[in-house]
Design a protein that fits this description.
This protein is α+β, with helices and mostly antiparallel strands. The chain has helices spanning about 5-15, 65-80, 120-145; strands at about 20-25, 30-35, 35-45, 50-65, 85-90, 105-115. The protein has a single domain, classed as Yope Regulator, Chain: A (2-Layer Sandwich), CATH 3.30.1460. The chain has 3 helices and 6 strands; from the N terminus they run αββββαββα.
Length: about 150
């Protein structure tokens, strides 16, 4: 590793060397985990170490009028998660005529991990966290969507 490599480049190289399928994109990387793709972003922490942010797009969308029930359900789901959380992000509309339409929100899995350094032990911890994050979020959502009660609280 050269000193000029960024934190993200070092993380991408380490994950690729560990056997994961990783593709660099604009300001982050996409990691193929089975059927899903986790976006990874890294930045140097001004107090030392590296902050790694993970995003998992679940391809689930919620209309504004369903928010109260969905928020309660997401809150309940988040209480059982150890490696991430479900969040709602507003979806930007490209159509200017849809101003009167209800807002739509995407359901995303998110996690943040602080690494004190990019040594082998910390990179292995990141790899483990990444796998657990993806599995936990996916399992929680699938269990809810396919369970007997659906996503209502």
């Amino acid at each position: 590793m050269t000193a000029s490599q960024t934190e993200l480049q070092r993380i991408v190289a380490a994950l690729q060397n560990s056997g994961l399928t990783v593709e660099s994109v604009e300001d982050g990387a996409l990691i193929q985990q089975g059927e899903t793709r986790v976006a990874l972003f890294a930045e140097r922490d001004h107090q030392g170490g590296v902050i790694v942010r993970l995003h998992l797009d679940l391809d689930l969308y919620v209309e504004e009028d369903s928010l109260p029930d969905i928020l309660m359900g997401i809150n309940l789901l988040n209480q059982g998660l150890d490696y991430g959380a479900l969040n709602l992000d507003p979806v930007e509309s490209d159509d200017e005529d849809e101003e009167d339409e209800p807002a739509t929100f995407a359901v995303l899995g998110r996690a943040v991990l602080w690494l004190p350094d990019l040594g082998p032990g910390e990179l292995e911890r990141l790899r483990e966290h990444l796998g657990r994050f993806e599995a936990e979020i996916t399992e929680a959502v699938e269990r809810t969507l396919h369970g007997s009660k659906g996503m209502s609280a």
